UniProtKB/TrEMBL annotation, chains A, B:
Pfam families: 2-Hacid_dh_C (PF02826). This is 3-phosphoglycerate dehydrogenase. Keywords: NAD, Oxidoreductase. One of its GO terms (molecular function) is oxidoreductase activity, acting on the CH-OH group of donors, NAD or NADP as acceptor. Residues 103-277 form the D-isomer specific 2-hydroxyacid dehydrogenase NAD-binding domain. Gene3D superfamilies: NAD(P)-binding Rossmann-like Domain (3.40.50.720).
Amino acid sequence: MHVYASFFIRPDLREPLVSAFPNVQFTFAPHDVNEEALAKADVLLTYGEDVTEELLKKAPNIQWIFVASAGVEKLPARTILARDIVVSNVKGIHKKPMAESIIGHILALKRAIPWMYEQKKKGEWSQDVRQDELNGSTALILGPGAIGGEIGRLLQKFDVTTIGCNRSGERAKYMDETITFAQLKDYLPKADIVLSLLPKTPETDRLFSYDYFVCMKETAIFMNFGRSNIVEESVLVGALKEGQIAHVVLDVFDEEPLPKTSELWQLDGVVISPHISSRSSLYVERSLAIFKPSLRRFMQGYRNLENIVDLERGY
Amino acid sequence: MHVYASFFIRPDLREPLVSAFPNVQFTFAPHDVNEEALAKADVLLTYGEDVTEELLKKAPNIQWIFVASAGVEKLPARTILARDIVVSNVKGIHKKPMAESIIGHILALKRAIPWMYEQKKKGEWSQDVRQDELNGSTALILGPGAIGGEIGRLLQKFDVTTIGCNRSGERAKYMDETITFAQLKDYLPKADIVLSLLPKTPETDRLFSYDYFVCMKETAIFMNFGRSNIVEESVLVGALKEGQIAHVVLDVFDEEPLPKTSELWQLDGVVISPHISSRSSLYVERSLAIFKPSLRRFMQGYRNLENIVDLERGY
């Protein structure tokens, strides 16, 4: 059994991995592709970005790709499906750091924390600022899956009403109510926070048109921590400039790194989280904690591993 | 019955108050003292800061002071006790906005949110920052009363271990464990977050000496949202400069406004919340929601009102 890891794993995490599997040959190639090792590899450990048609050609024996990330829409799906390669990911490990980032951003805005940082830099004592409260508000969560549920769970503890939105309107955990995409416009006027965690699918493409922002509260916070395709940057910029909404917090962008020329950099009311909301100093450790039992099961011949990705659905 | 209010109450909140009590004469004097009205007042509605010996002399009929604040240590206690004036406050309404501020500050620091704000201003895309997680950490909460309990309740939902600290070591709600002041030094090395909500009493005076900071984790966040007397500013500055702890978040200061000359303004790792953590756009509304039923009870002759303050204990 050959395992090929294409991302950096600290020595203190490598050693226990290697010693836990004495019958496995590991190749750690975080910088350059090791073609010889790749040719023999049965299992690929990756963040996903390097998995191209070309790479797969160099890895004819791959049976399982373990993606230490949540987004899989850039994987060459047809080839993977045709070759019957199992794909699993680590979606479980994103939910806590992401929920903490998202709730941190919301509380910071509600409680005037960015303003405090500015006052500190100016050395100016002032108490002349508006501070609102999170409790009593309503959050609309598009894509109430594992991550949305974790955020919903926490928001409910802050006495926030949670409304989930998915394609079927099927009840989702930690949502006081769940609605369909078709009902969105009726519910947007109630929401203090609109958070998208939607995957990139044809159905979610440019879902948020300008008239959706017109429906929202002028005090609303719009947050996109899913995929950028749900709204055109120019529409978002326009809505904010016109005061249709008060704040935008973005973790995802059509082009990453966000180009220097983007108006988002200049606009007040925009928070740019450079696609790092799920990152954590504990990330690799937690990825390996999912990988290890899966590798054990894989070696026993099982293919129904934890967090299997259905590439036909795209998530 | 005469009620004298010395703080500003918006007209839309005044009107329902006045109409709810047709037999009460209200005086609203948010700017200048109305001596004539004060001389007749039975009840004083105040933020507390204006309640001096002198003011009480001008108000010989006062039987109840409703303080729309939590801190009462500046009230002329001896006179109030000698004249048998009932004092009540609004401590219940601080807990939610304060808990939201405190958890907002913690999450912001853990998830590198201040760094994101700086990058935005510079227009620089980077993912090169350390982000930690709140879940799995330990918080030591000094003064686990109503506010501390609310913070403990929320922190536990973030999978944080909560340790309360009070003088008796008596179990406190939402604390996984409760310890006494004498045990503090044994527990400080475990804490990722040390939060004081202690009132000003002789017992809490300069409780945190330099050696306490030496015990703490180098990554610890020290937060003071109680009263400033627990630690000398120079000790705190020294501990931070030497790297004994990583972050300080302060809502209270020996001198307020914090003087321009204070080193706290200059130091990285310091967050200055200018004594506004409990403020909220809903503050007066919520104060009046406590005041109204108390006024009804007071008019019926009851004196055991909600949130009675024991001035002998000082809180």
